[in-house]
Design brief:
Blueprint: H1 3-8, H2 16-20, H3 24-29, H4 34-58, H5 67-89, H6 91-97, H7 108-116, H8 123-153, E1 155-156, E2 159-160, H9 175-199
Antiparallel strand pairs: 1-2
Helix pairs in contact: 4-5, 4-7, 4-8, 5-6, 5-7
């Protein structure tokens, strides 16, 4: 598969929260505004791209029995760097995102791409994979956050865009609103996929099942994948 194909797959075909249903914890928790979603997405891009690159570079020297521990150490180091940068330059955003910034290290997208792709492919392809998946995740969180902010506050990125007669749906910026908006987005994407397949005379692809992308694997004690 070409470098461009590795990049573009993360923008639709393997869109993490809406196609693979990965990283749903921060997707639902921090997207009560567009800037929160964008901030979390950019942080994940930073960690994902650099972790993919570093893991791909050292993949031939890491023993298989300790590869998961090594992946976690690399990701954790990058997350610490993200925390320090956010504290220095975007402290208010860092406070709003709270515990979900350090929890990037256990985000299944990070370890999933490390295990399923970066540990098996070259540096250029791994960077393209990480950038595409990361951008897809960032765009998804920003879109979901903007949708909830518009419906719940009448604003987008803090700017008033709805008229004075608009009555905000406060539930949309609360926890239930995250599930409602996510369900609506998934429904719309499924309708789009069905119509695209119908126009091409094909059968619509079923949603990617958990583990089908290789992100979630049972690691046996002998280091083999089960």
């Amino acid at each position: 598969m070409s470098i461009m194909a590795e990049f573009t797959k993360g923008l639709w075909k393997e869109l993490p929260p809406f196609r693979l249903l990965l990283g749903l914890c921060p997707t639902l928790a921090v997207t009560n505004s567009a800037d929160n979603g964008l901030g979390m997405g950019v942080a994940v891009i930073f960690v994902l791209v650099l972790s993919n690159m570093l893991i791909s570079m050292v993949r031939t020297v890491i023993p298989k029995t300790v590869r998961i521990a090594c992946f976690i150490v690399i990701a954790a180091s990058l997350v610490v760097a993200v925390e320090l940068l956010m504290q220095a330059y975007t402290y208010e955003l860092y406070q709003r995102l709270g515990i979900f910034v350090p929890l990037i290290v256990v985000n299944c997208i990070i370890l999933g791409r490390a295990e399923a792709f970066a540990a098996k492919n070259g540096v250029a392809a791994s960077i393209a994979d990480g950038l595409g998946i990361g951008m897809g995740f960032a765009l998804s969180l920003t879109f979901l956050g903007a949708l909830r902010e518009i419906l719940g506050n009448g604003t987008c990125f803090g700017y008033q865009i709805m008229g004075s007669n608009f009555e905000p749906l406060r539930i949309m910026v609360q926890a239930p609103g995250a599930f409602i908006c996510l369900g609506l987005i998934l429904a719309v994407m499924n309708v789009i996929n069905v119509r695209q397949a119908a126009r091409q005379g094909k059968k619509a692809e079923a949603p990617v099942q958990c583990g089908a992308c290789g992100a979630c694997m049972v690691i046996r004690q002998d280091g083999k994948e089960g």
